[in-house]
Amino acid sequence: MKAYNRKYAALALGISVTMLVVFKVLYPFPNLVYDSYFYVQAAVFNWPVNAWPIGYSRFLRLLGFFSHSPLLFVCVQYLLLELSCLFFFFTWRYFFRPGKIITAVLFALLFVNPLLLITCNFLQSDALFISLSILWASQLCWIICRPRPYMIVTHAILLALAFTVRYNALYYPLIGALAFLLSRQRLWLKLAGIGLPLLLTAAFVVYTAGQVAAITGEKQFSPMGGWKLANNAIYVYPYITPVEKQLVPARLWPLDSVIRQYFLKPCGDDPAGLNKMDFAYGGYYTFVPCSPLVLYMRKVYGREEDHINTQGWMAVGSVYQEYGTWFMRQYPLAYAQHFMAPNLFRYLKPVPEIFEEKGSFHLDERFGGGVVGEWLGLNTLSVSQFRINLWLRVLGPFPALFSIVHLLFVLGMAGFAFSGGFRNVKKPFSVCLLMMAALWLVDLIFSLSSSGIVLRYEIFMVVIESAFGLYFLEYAYKHLDRPVLAK
Q1: 135, part of any domain
Q2: Are residues 228 and 343 part of one domain?
Q3: Is the pLDDT of residue 307 over 60?
Q4: Are residues 257 and 337 in the same domain?
Q5: For the segment 185-214, what is each residue's pLDDT rounded down to a tens digit?
Q6: Which of 114, 308, 354, 423 has its CA 20 to 30 A from that of 193?
Q7: Degrees to nearest 5, angle at CA 154 with 150 and 156
Q8: Which of 42, 114, 99 shows the shortest CA–CA distance to 478?
Q9: Spatial distance between the Cα atoms of 169 and 412, rounded to a whole number of angstroms
Q10: Residues 49-65, buried b or exposed e (16+ Cβ, 10 A)?
């Protein structure tokens, strides 16, 4: 096993370096999108809090002590991602002993995959979050199958770091707690494993809320989360009858009035354009200038510049959170029908979103391109049209590929269960497989209910689905002709 691991590690390293060199020859500049400018500015000015979680900006600032070269940022992101994939790959092989064919398939998906390179070329939190999440998921397997006391600390650190990078890790403590409860170790170790991540994340929440309060005068953890909740509610708003809309609490009337006026005369040439944006991105009302959320902010706090880390922008987050939370509780069936159901289609075939934005190949002065360009030592991000077209062609198959992975994972898991896999595979490995199934299910529910679903948000779970989906399919293929249950 060790000799095979060394061969796989050497092969993965050789392929990764070769792909990185070729990729950077073709695309020497990093890609910058809307979020990127604020991540970088938060690193430049050392903001204590940002519209997005501050962890990625701290990561950029840490690397900035050594160099501001964009090449360094991209290479470190890619190195971390590939090392996390390698650790996951070895963990998967060590515990589940897959066959040669599916081992080779997963190896190719992890290390001969241009999508991972493309992800790392963006100055965005995605690559770092995916790396931390893959390491965290790998750690779950070790906690269940081969627990050691030091894993209490490493698991807590990985979970806390992921949470500071993206709030999608909100459900990670639940899965981590389940892993410790199912592990074979002493009760006090289980309790420590459950409690330490909660302590670290709670400390981060308290710190962030305090920093936001210093700006807005009101404690709130995630202003961006409030905008997202209100954004989700507005998608459902047109399907609520006028009589029901009268139930809005009095304190939310001013915001509801702006939303109601918006739907009397939506921005854009026609509603069809809006629906298209709705299906494609799921975050339309958060960013479009004529959104009722933007209009309300300007109505209350005056017109703002494009810079979003301001007192007015953050202050409305608490109102938006209250409105979105109230709306979901008031109309759960309408929310499920008109937000979660369309989200399912986005989940099954996610759109490339920022990966296909041609604007990411150019510096945008509207969002602080001058400051960002100076810190990164960039005057331009100019890339030829031929290379942009090549980029888009490479990306083309991935939405369909993700759909196939989702389908094969579900079919494989069903086949594994039907052939008695969860009963026949020895513990604790069967427990680990159930843990991965639980992770997939919780992530699916979280994504459908609260998240804007795009290609980059699914990469982590597609890695998990690919590995365990292949294992499920291989097991089902070998055992479907045998008795379903073993005595």
Answers
A1: no
A2: yes
A3: no
A4: yes
A5: 999 999 999 999 999 999 999 999 888 888
A6: 423
A7: 115
A8: 99
A9: 26
A10: bbbbbbbbbbbbbebbe
The Cα-based distances of 256 to 51, 127, 230, 247, 292 in angstroms read 23, 37, 10, 11, 9
Contacts of 100-104 with CB under 8 Å at 24 or more apart are 101/474, 102/470, 102/471, 102/473, 102/474
293 shares its domain with 406: no
Give me the mean pLDDT over the 315-322 stretch. 87
Supply 77's token pair: 């992101």
175 and 438 Cβ atoms separated by less than 8 Å:
yes
Amino acid identity at 40: V
Burial class (CB in 10 A: 0-12, 13-18, 19+), 227: buried
Number of domains in the chain: 2
Who's near 88: CB < 8 A, 6+ residues apart?
A: 110, 134, 135, 137, 138, 463, 467
Same domain, 315 and 406: no
Same domain? 415 vs 326: no
Domain shared by 236 and 340, yes or no: yes
- Residue 19, domain member (yes or no): no
**Is 128 within 8 Å of 167 (Cβ atoms)?**
no
Boundaries of domain holding 303: 222-348
Q: What is the pLDDT of residues 420-439, one digit of tens each?
A: 899 889 889 999 999 999 99
**Inside any domain, residue 70:** no
Residue ending a domain, choose from 311, 333, 348? 348
Instruction: Classify residue 377 as left (phi > 0), alpha (psi -120 to 50) or beta.
Output: left
C-alpha atoms less than 13 angstroms from C-alpha of 81 in its C-beta half-sphere? 30
Domain boundary among 314, 348, 382: 348
| Residues 338 and 403 occupy one common structural domain | no
Q: Is 215 exposed, middle or buried (0-12, 13-18, 19+ CB in 10 A)?
A: middle
Pair 342, 439 in one domain: no
In a domain, residue 165? The reply is no
Angle between helices 429-450 and 223-236 (to 10 degrees): 70
